[in-house]
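Q: What would this chain look like folded?
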Amino acid sequence: MVAVTTCPDALEIDGVPVALVAWPVGDARRRALAAGGHPRLLLVAAGADPPESDDVLEDWLRLPRDLDDIPRRARRLGRLAAGSS
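A: My prediction, written as structure tokens:
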């Protein structure tokens, strides 16, 4: 497991920013990013249910989680976003 003291708002993957959004507290940000067609990785709080979504530019991880999974999922979303441009 990787120790991280702060979490960025986004990870840049091959020039594509993938937003990291706390869920459920970041719902307004999630909706704004979705409306703009931006890829986003939801970090779902323990005990919270992830939202239902069929948007290929959205994925989620339940926390706590091995933080190595965050860049791996973000890379996948970045590649999808780059291919849909």
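The helical segments are 27-35, 69-84.
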